[in-house]
Specification:
Blueprint: H1 5-11, H2 16-23, H3 27-35, H4 42-52, E1 72-76, E2 92-96, E3 108-112, E4 126-128, E5 136-137, E6 142-147, H5 150-153, E7 164-168, E8 183-187, E9 197-203, E10 209-218, E11 225-229, E12 238-240, E13 245-255
Parallel strand pairs: 3-7
Antiparallel strand pairs: 1-2, 3-6, 4-5, 7-8, 8-13, 9-10, 9-13, 10-11, 11-12
Helix pairs in contact: 2-3
């Protein structure tokens, strides 16, 4: 049975861990409840509603109309502290969004600081994907904004800056191509696997995990599969049914340390 638990959690700007703590349960249970593999019973509704500060009926409503949230400025700790936030004077300024990314600077590329990477991630950074500029991010996913000259961006893509999004890589499964800490620039208008390539994806099999993987297709029709290829020979490849994967965009460039 479909429910609005995930949508309301992201609307409130909570991670799965934070909601689990408020509800007195585990992140694994939240993942199952959001995916519908565990029914959101009246008992769960009674625990989730006060944790999210919403009316219980909103959790199962078929016509949930949430007020959109705009981008807001937040303070962030040093980059090595991946998820910490601070209100101390002198902290860097960042950007937070739990609505469709619109940007606060003309021609800006959102810089996404989330546990999406080339290997096991943590929290999902993407709340929903509506294609291109309709990506909606979890709270604090957008750490800042990058502005590149149009002539430089045009060397990699014909898409406009707002459609190109930067994602920080984590993990070592793409180590022959990408290093942990690299930033991948993804063209969110390009979802076509074609002959393959490196993509930012959402893996729905394990709690909407965000990954950077090389993709290729195998089989046709009912036998069609998407292969998640690890460029690191020490890591294995995985197969997913196309319904288990949402392609955010094709990786077109990277920012790395020398």
């Amino acid at each position: 049975m479909a429910n609005n638990l995930k949508r309301l959690r992201n609307w409130r700007g909570l991670s799965q861990e934070a909601l689990a703590e408020r509800m007195g349960t585990s992140r694994n249970q939240i993942t199952k409840l959001e995916a519908g593999t565990r029914r959101l019973s009246d008992v769960w509704i009674d625990r989730a509603a006060p944790a999210l500060d919403v009316d219980p009926g909103m959790l199962v409503s078929e016509k949930l109309d949430l007020e959109p949230r705009e981008l807001t400025r937040v303070a962030v700790e040093h980059e090595d502290d991946d998820h910490a936030r601070s209100d101390e004077p002198g902290a860097e300024s960042g950007v937070s969004s739990i609505g469709p990314y619109r940007g606060t600077l003309p021609g800006a590329i959102p810089d996404l600081d989330a546990a999406g990477g080339a290997g096991p991630g943590e929290n999902s950074l993407i709340y929903s994907t509506v294609g291109g500029n309709g990506l909606t991010y979890s709270a604090d996913a957008v750490r800042g904004e990058i502005v590149l000259p149009s002539y430089l961006l045009s060397e990699f893509t014909r898409s406009k800056p707002g459609v190109v999004h930067a994602v920080r890589v984590r993990g070592d499964s793409m180590e022959m191509t990408l290093l942990s800490g690299d930033r991948v620039f993804a063209d969110t208008n390009d979802h076509n696997i074609g002959q393959g390539g490196v993509f930012v994806i959402v893996d729905h099999r394990y709690g909407d995990e965000v990954l950077v993987k090389r993709l290729r297709r195998t089989g046709r029709g009912a036998a069609a599969q998407i292969v998640l290829v690890s460029d690191n020979p020490k890591q294995g490849d995985d197969e997913r049914h196309p319904d288990e994967v949402t392609i955010v965009g094709r990786a077109i460039a990277r920012l790395t340390r020398l």
